[in-house]
Amino acid sequence: MLNGLRNLANVSAWRSFDHDAYRFGAGYDLSEMDKCIEIIKGIKAFEEILEQDVIDIKELQKLAFNGVPDDKGLRSLVWRILLHYVPKEKSSRESTLFKKRQLYKQFIDEIIVSPGGPADHPLNISPDSSWSTYFKDNEVLLQIDKDVRRLCPDISFFQSATEFPCLEIVNSNGVKRLHKRVEQSVLKYSTLERRGLGVAKLSNEIRRSESITTGDYAPLNEGCEAHWEVVERMLFLYAKLNPGQGYVQGMNEIIGPIYHTFAIDANKEYREHAEADCFFCFTNLMAEIRDFFIRTLDEAESGINYMMSKLSECVKRNDRVVWDRMERQELRPQYYSFRWLTLLLSQEFSLPDVERFWDSLFADPHRFNFLIYICCAMILLVRDDLLSGDFASNVKLLQNFPPMDVSLILNKAVDISTR
Questions:
Q1: pLDDT tens digits for 229-244?
Q2: Are 156 and 218 a contacting pair, CB within 8 Å?
Q3: How far apart are CA 56 and CA 80, in angstroms?
Q4: Which of 365, 378, 364 lies closest to 406, judged by CA?
Q5: pTM to 2 decimals?
Q6: Which tens digit of pLDDT belongs to each residue from 128-157?
């Protein structure tokens, strides 16, 4: 059996296996070897489904719901499929990816442009002026720039250089580098108008600033670019292509885990096109959750208030004692779950944990019902603290959810979903 396992030396779990301890009877825990075998079986199961001429989406969802292995870029490919970017027909995959990636390159060429021309100048007040568009775009870009410079500060990934920078951008002598546009000494920019709790939307009010303070991450030199700069470009293009919604603060937390997953893919080709693929997957995901970010749809079935009411009802059904306690304290879901639901838990847990949660969320055929069960599980798992705490301590507890084993939360959520 060991000889057979050695052939799978590229599996991370097997790499960490203590061969010598096992070989010489040093009391190795066989349960850990069993875990290695289970991981290997799981990888094989995914590979068999993904190699089908036409992928069985229901079977893929069942597998992915229980977690997608990090090995061999499986999560990256599975997410591309579950987010309706890569077709289930294997024969169409290559042509679809080629067309989409070419389209994204076209977006960069046509949308990230320098203003000006023979008949145009910065003082031209015409709404059709390229300079007018340029300054208006900068209002949005300022907020994007601030947000992406603080993306996932607990890891170094977004500050590090991308392996595949956009050469047209990084070799433009700074002309097309978006961060350059918000590092000027004076720049018109938008203030923020609160839209509920935790998410803000750009308003039309314009202010002037004598200096623009940059965020935590520094841009890289000409010829290179950091991952946060790539995310900034994707969000800017999304805002330009979706003027009805534009950019809303918090979208950076949605695109971040997707881009990270794609950019660390074991497949070099997929890493090279992580930006384009991420952009379209993010766009598809936003088409499903964009109502969370639109205030006028808060009460709709796809809106955030409706989701929060569903969470409250779920808690009431599964633990009336906790629900009564929260009701007496007037501890409304708006005080803690707005961010949980809107940002798909991306700010409550570490990035690896978020990616594991998203395996299940993306595999949920009734997206995003399982998100409600996860949030309910989080509340019930801290019930003792909630029952003994006052309003202030309970708000603090839920707004700063304590570290907890992801599998514990997911198992509890599955239990709730089957009641």
A1: 999 999 999 999 999 8
A2: no
A3: 15
A4: 378
A5: 0.83
A6: 555 567 778 888 999 999 999 999 999 999
